[in-house]
């Protein structure tokens, strides 16, 4: 870590004119000398203060980072996976705290724990809930809560991934489908229903993700239909072949499967063109999700305080206390979301 250089000005280096001056000019000369000394002293103090701040800022921020604990939300853009986004967040926080550097990695100190709750597809964007510190233990409870999505589906086109990232596997006419047709079948997809997960998903077979097996050309059988819950679903817009849905659902639900099933119900086919998660539990995209330019220690600390009031009382009480030592050094323990065959919303720490 670079050390700050501080310029020190000694009293002897200040030039003072001791030559007698006329009485009429004495007051002005004295004032000038006093002003020069004051200015120099202020400059020395400012330089020293700046150097001190530069020296202690990283350890101070490291201590503050270690003290963060709770649950907050970030805005995930389309493109990166949820795990990749979490790594980006982790790297930004560690860099702000002065990590990593050789002197910090020599000794193992208290780790920074961070994880996400509820995977978003790489092609999807929106709210991604993040736990930090002991907040990672709250994620499992939050996963069972409701989620809300805005999905744009495209009629007449089916893909192997059930979204726009896959290969087109089927095309069917859609010109006779009306807005009333779509609205008329949505009731069939409301409440407690059975849903078959997509083949391209994070569910596992023999310890390997189905999506990974599919990408390697392996033959994969579809998982059996499982019970899921849709709290509400409405058609927001219809401009053939595109239709926009507002869906609120429970955990383990796949919007891609919903759109595909709607296409089949309409005697056509359909796939997801765009998908945005607008809410997860109490966290909304507009009010709570931090954009990347707000991924700083101070902004996250403020967000944690604001979000604490949104959590159920039994979870809020588990918020951890700040670390006592101001000399803690960071390493990073990465927590990710590991999907099982029964449920793709399970948190595992390692």
Automatic annotation (TrEMBL):
Q: Which CDD domains match?
A: PseudoU_synth_TruB_4
E.C. code: 5.4.99.25
List GO molecular-function terms, semicolon-separated.
Answer: pre-miRNA binding; pseudouridine synthase activity; tRNA pseudouridine(55) synthase activity
Show the catalytic activity: a uridine in tRNA = a pseudouridine in tRNA; a uridine in mRNA = a pseudouridine in mRNA; uridine(55) in tRNA = pseudouridine(55) in tRNA
Q: Name one GO biological process term.
A: mRNA pseudouridine synthesis
Provide the alphabetized UniProt keywords. Answer: Acetylation, Cytoplasm, Isomerase, mRNA processing, Nucleus, tRNA processing
> Sorted alphabetically, which SUPFAM superfamilies does this protein's record hold?
Pseudouridine synthase
Biased composition regions of type Polar residues, renumbered to the chain: 10-21
Assigned GO CC terms:
cytosol; nucleus
Query: Does the keyword section mention Transmembrane helix?
Result: no
Provide the residue span(s) of the region labelled Disordered.
1-27
Keyword Amino-acid biosynthesis listed? The answer is: no
Major location category of this protein? cytoplasm
Domain Pseudouridine synthase II N-terminal: from-to ranges: 107-255
Name where it's found.
Cytoplasm, Cytosol; Nucleus
Which Pfam family, an example, fits this chain? Answer: TruB_N
| PANTHER family the record matches | PSEUDOURIDYLATE SYNTHASE TRUB1, TRNA-PSEUDOURIDINE SYNTHASE
Q: What does this protein do?
A: Pseudouridine synthase that catalyzes pseudouridylation of mRNAs and tRNAs. Mediates pseudouridylation of mRNAs with the consensus sequence 5'-GUUCNANNC-3', harboring a stem-loop structure. Constitutes the major pseudouridine synthase acting on mRNAs. Also catalyzes pseudouridylation of some tRNAs, including synthesis of pseudouridine(55) from uracil-55, in the psi GC loop of a subset of tRNAs. Promotes the processing of pri-let-7 microRNAs (pri-miRNAs) independently of its RNA pseudouridylate synthase activity.
Query: So what family is this one in?
Result: Belongs to the pseudouridine synthase TruB family.
Name of this protein: Pseudouridylate synthase TRUB1
Organism (species): Sus scrofa
Which lineage? Eukaryota, Metazoa, Chordata, Craniata, Vertebrata
